[in-house]
Design brief:
The protein has ten helices and two strands. By secondary structure, the protein is mainly alpha-helical.
Length: 266
């Protein structure tokens, strides 16, 4: 399987100024204020009875300000998804060359979980609201689809589809694996929200990702060029297994290599 060079993120050091960062922070602050106003009105008046004008007035801004931030009132309860999508993409762009692409995607989607975990009470209230209002549920599904497309593009970027031939299932595996990561994340997230945001959600997520890696990870051979030293390897010396790992090797990669070597001896 040929492996095209990964595109490198452009250097934006000259364009990302303190003023740009302040503007982005102010924009996110305004979106969150509008979202809080919308959630309060949806809870007290009901979703259908609440108007955009009422949301804007409750947030102390004009109607046109609302529409500078959201296209509709259902979008108003998801103020952080745009920002989180950018952060997830940044994780993919900055991935070290030795990292397995599936591991990179798992790290990327953790930005989504951190967004929810940063405001547990708000996340639980929003979850309950989306269960009650089909329109909001559809908006949530559309937001999730954006992450799935991002991760699918990333995994597909590690395969040369022009060289696809019969019997080469890597492109199919990339799409299925991206869907599996998103599904695992959403399963853990929903379970955590139904439990009123109790428990160590990141540990639950790591467990779910380990299942995805064990199911799909071995079949994706991307992220490593031929001849490159693997992050970790195990050799046998009699009854002893000797593990050798690069200092920058991910811990889960090292542990997976050791587990596979032990399983081979059984």
């Amino acid at each position: 399987m040929s492996q095209p060079a990964r595109p490198q993120p452009s250097d934006t050091s000259d364009t990302v100024t303190p003023g740009t960062r302040r503007a982005a922070a102010q924009r996110l602050k305004m979106r969150r204020e509008l979202s809080a106003a919308a959630m309060e009105l949806f809870a007290t008046k009901g979703y259908e009875a609440t108007t955009v004008d009422e949301i804007a007035a409750a947030a102390g801004v004009a109607r046109r300000t609302f529409f500078r931030h959201f296209r509709s009132k259902e979008e108003a309860i998801f103020p952080d998804h745009d920002d989180t999508l950018v952060r997830a993409e940044a994780v993919l762009d900055a991935a070290p060359p030795h990292e397995h692409p599936l591991d990179t995607v798992c790290r990327g989607i953790k930005e989504v979980m951190r967004m929810y975990a940063a405001s547990p009470a708000v996340s639980v209230a929003r979850y309950r609201l989306t269960r009650e209002v089909p329109t909001l549920r559809e908006a949530e599904i559309a937001s999730v689809a954006r992450y799935e497309r991002l991760f699918t593009r990333y995994l597909l970027g590690h395969f040369d589809e022009g060289a696809h031939r019969e019997g080469d299932d890597d492109p199919l595996l990339a799409e299925v694996a991206a869907s599996a990561v998103v599904t695992a994340h959403n399963h853990v997230l929903r379970r955590w929200l139904r439990a009123d945001a109790q428990g160590d959600v990141e540990a639950q997520l790591d467990h779910a990702f380990e299942i995805v890696r064990e199911t799909f990870g071995a079949g994706i051979g991307a992220g490593r060029t031929s001849g490159e030293q693997p992050p970790a390897s195990v050799s046998r010396e009699g009854e002893v297994l000797v593990a050798v790992a690069r200092t920058d090797a991910p811990l889960d990669e090292i542990m997976r290599t050791i587990r596979e070597a032990i399983a081979e001896r059984k």
